[in-house]
What we know:
- This protein is mainly alpha-helical.
- The chain has a domain at about 15-70.
- It is about 50% helix and about 10% strand.
- The chain is built from three helices and two strands.
- Helix 2 (about 75-80) packs across helix 3.
- The longest helix has about 35 residues, at about 15-50.
- It is flat.
Amino acid sequence: MANITTSTTSVQVSLETLLAVREIARLRDEQKKMAEQEAIIRKQLLEVAGSANELVFEGVAIANIQRSTRTGTDTKALAEKFPEAFAETRTTTSQVKVVVL
Length: 101
């Protein structure tokens, strides 16, 4: 559904820039591992909480459990059922990302 346009040009960089890119890769790897650990701990906390909204240790609240629901739009179905409305309400945004290889 999304149209993504990219272009590629190259520039020779310094050793300092190479090291910075490697540091980003290292940090992302570390961040991924931490996110995985956090997900495991959050799951354990939810199991302990059951239907409660608060975790308490010695009378002091240490965590709140906030439950919510989210409603979204099925853009694929919208485009199929109402193609004109879909086309008329599409927006385009630009973004710049640094992708570490």
